[in-house]
Amino acid sequence: MSKLEDIQIEIMQSLDHGPDFLSDQLFAGSRARVLTGMNVHANTISHARLVALEDSFPRTRISMGHARFNEYSRMYLEEPGPAARPLMQIGADFADFLGRRGQTSTWSDLARFEYCWLESYHAAEASALRLSDLWGIAPDMLMEITVQTHPAASIGQFNEKVRQLLGQEVAGLADAHAVLLTRPDAEVLVSPASADIAAIFPKNRTHVTLGNLLAGINEPEGNEKCVPPDGLTALVVLLEAGALTRVQI
Amino acid sequence: MSIVSALPPAVGIGLKPQHYAQLLEAATGNIPHRPAWLEIHPQNYFVAGGPPHRWLSALAEQYPLSFHSVGLSLGSAEGVDRDELNQLVALCQRYEPALVSDHLSWSGNQSNRFPDLLPVPYTQDALDHFCIQVDFAQDLLKRQILIENPSRYLAFAHDAMDEAEFLHLLCKRTGCAILLDINNIEVSATNLGLDPFLMIDAIEPHLVGEIHLAGHAREEHETGILLIDDHGSPVSDITWALFTRFTQRAGRRPVLIEWDTDVPDYPILMAEAAKAEAAMDDAVFCAKQGQRLVEA
After folding, report:
1. Which of A63, A144, A197, B295 lies 20 to 30 Å from B219 when distance is taken between CA atoms?
2. Is A30 on the interface with B (CB under 8 A)?
C-alpha cells in the first residue's frame, strides 16, 4: 500500500466513522484545529448527499415532514450502496429502503413515483410517434408498424393515497388503474392509465408491431385478427401521450 | 507551455437553471448585460437528455462554454474516476467546450464517493501520482485541462512543497494549466495562517488559463477564524484586492463569477460580473502606466 493510499484510507475512515480514526501525525496544527477543518469536509459531504435526496423526492419530503424525511435519509445513507453512487443517482434505492423499513406503502410508493419521474425527466431524447403521424396509412399497413416504448415513458401502479395526492394536480389520477409518465416534448407528462393501457404498454423496450400490441389485450380466443375497441382506445391514449417511438426495421 | 483557450479574456458566470431563460434573452439583446461566456459543472449534465440538455444546447449556440468538473477525483490513490472521465469525454464531444477543468483534489473511491474536494498532500509521491492521472485524462479528452488550486482547511504535516510549487511542477510535467481560484487563495491562507498576497505573487501568470472569483462564509471558532468556500455571497474585499494585484501582473484572463448557493437574481449576478470587468480593466490600464493599485 502506497503512502498516498494510507493517507486517504485514514481520511475516509475518519470522515465515515469519526475522529478516533484520525492520527495526530497526519495534519499540521493543533488537534482542535485539525478537527475543525475535518468537520468542514464532513459537513460538506453530509449536506450534499442530504440535499441530493431532498431534490430527488420533494413530494415525499413534504408528505413525511422534513424531520422524519431527514432522519430516514440519514439512515439510508448509512446503508451500503448509496455512497457509491453519483449524487444524481443517490436516491435509486430510497423507495425500497422506505419499504424495507416498514414505512407505509404511501411513502415508499410516493418515492418510487418520484424516482420514475426523475428518470423520465433525464431520459434520452426521441421522437414520439403521434396519432397524426399515422394519418393516411392503410389499416392493414398500420398493424405492421413496429414500435417500442419511448425512452422517457413508463407506467406504474401506486397505492390509493399516492394517486389521490397526485390527483390533486392531474385530473383522473385518483381513480386510475395506473399512472403513465411520458415526455413527448420538453416536460414530463403525468397521465391516468386504464388497465387496458397498462396491458398493451410494451415491456422492456422490446420491438413490437402495433398489431401484436393490440393482440396482447383481451381478444377472443382464436380470433386474433379482431381488434377489441378498448384496445384501440388504449393505443390512441398511448400515442397521444407520446409513450411510443417508431422503430425503422 | 502554452494555454490553449478559446474562452474570451472577459467575465463569464456559472450557469444556473434559474437564469436559463434570461441568458437566452440577453444573448439576443432583449435584456441588457450579457456575460462573455458560461461555465457549467458537467456532472449536472451526465444524463441522456431532458430539459437541462435542451437549455444547454440552445445556450451553447450563443455563448462559449467552460466545463468545470467536480468529480474526476484526479488525486485519488485508486486513480481518476473512469466512469466520470468517460462521461466527461462524451459530454465534451457533444458540446465542444472552450475549456475543461477540474481540481487539485480527490473525492473518495469507487465504493465510497465523497461529494467534496478533499486535500492532496504536497509531496513528491502525490505529485508523481497526480501527473500520471492528469496525463491520462488529457490523453482521453484529447485536450489540455486546467487544474484549480483548492480551498484548504487542513495542511498535511509532511507537505514537502508549497501549493504554487506543486502546481508549477504539475504544469511543467503534464502540459496542463492552472485555474486560479482567488477566493480559494484567501480561504486557504486564512485557514492555514499564510499570507495570501505572497501566495498570489508566487503564481506564475503565464500558467493561468482562467480565474475564479467567489464569496465565502466566515466562522469564528476557539481555534481561530475559519473561512468556508461556499460560493454563497459577493466577492470579498481581500479577494478583489488579490485579483487586482494578480491581473496587474497577468493581464486579461477569462474570469468567472462563481455563485453556487443562495444564487442571486440575474441583475445582481451581472453587477458582480461588471465589477470584475471594471477591476480587470483598471488593473491592466494601471499596469501599462506603471502604477500599482494594491500593495501587500
Report:
1. B295
2. yes
Do B247 and B280 contact (CB within 8 A), yes or no? yes
Enclosing H/E stretch for B227: strand B224-228
Contact of B116 with chain A, judged by CB distance below 8 Å, is answered with yes
Q: Does A238 touch chain B (CB under 8 A)?
A: no
CB contact under 8 A, B115 and A44: yes
pLDDT at B209: 97
Q: How much of chain A is in helix, strand and coil states, percent to nearest 5?
A: 55, 10, 35
- Given a cut of 80, is residue B2 above it in pLDDT? no
Helix (H) or strand (E) holding A209: strand A208-209
Residue with cell 509532511: B158
Query: What element of type H or E holds B115?
Result: strand B112-118
* CB contact B41 to A (< 8 Å): no
**pTM of this prediction?**
0.93
Chain B residue with the nearest C-alpha to that of A78: B112
Q: What percent of chain A has pLDDT over 70?
A: 93
Q: Rounded mean pLDDT of A102-107?
A: 80
What's the pLDDT score for residue A1?
A: 43
